[in-house]
Amino acid sequence: MGRTRRRTQVIDFLKVAKQLLVKTQGIITFGDGEYSERMENSPTYPSFFDGNLSHYKALYESMEWGFPSYLNEGRIAMETLFIAPFISSISWLQKWEEGRENVFSQNDLGLKGRKMSRESWSEVRELVKEGESPYGIRVEGENENEMVLEWKGIPLVRVSVWM
C-alpha cells in the first residue's frame, strides 16, 4: 500500500506557510494527483470508491497511451512502483473517513487564489496537444486559480496557486 500525506498534515503545513506570507511575499503552489472529489459529491463510500477507481484507471490508460511500445518494460516498472501501491480499498476507506471528519478547503485558511495566466493555460494546452489527444486542460476555482489536467474528461492532476 502506498503512502501519502494525511490531509491534516497538509493543512498544518499550509497554516505555517500562510504565517510566513504575512512577513514576506510569496506564492504557494499546491499540487494534488490523487482523486480529490469534494466530499459533498461523494457522500457514500461506494461513490468515493468508484471515483478512485475511475481516477486510477484513467491514470493507467494515459500512461499506456503515451509510452512507445519499445518502452513497455519502463512503463510497467513505473506503473508497478508509482501507481499500483496506491490502489487499495483499505487506504481509500481510511481517506474517505478522514475526509468526512475534516472537510476543508484552502479558502478556509484565508489564502487568496491567484488567477492562472492565459499564457500558462495556452502553453499547457499546446503541451498536451489539446484537441488532438485524449488530454484536456480546464481552469477552475473561484478565482480561476486551479488548473486541471484531464484524461478523457477524468481529472488526473490539479494544481492551484495561492497567495
Automatic annotation (TrEMBL):
Assigned keywords, A-Z: Transcription, Transcription regulation
InterPro entries tied to this protein: TF_GRAS (IPR005202)
A Pfam family hit: GRAS
Family, as annotated: Belongs to the GRAS family.
PROSITE patterns in the cross-refs: GRAS
Region annotation SAW: where it falls in the sequence: 91-163
Taxonomy, superkingdom: Eukaryota
UniProt source species: Lactuca virosa
Name of protein: Uncharacterized protein
Source organism phylogeny: Eukaryota, Viridiplantae, Streptophyta, Embryophyta, Tracheophyta
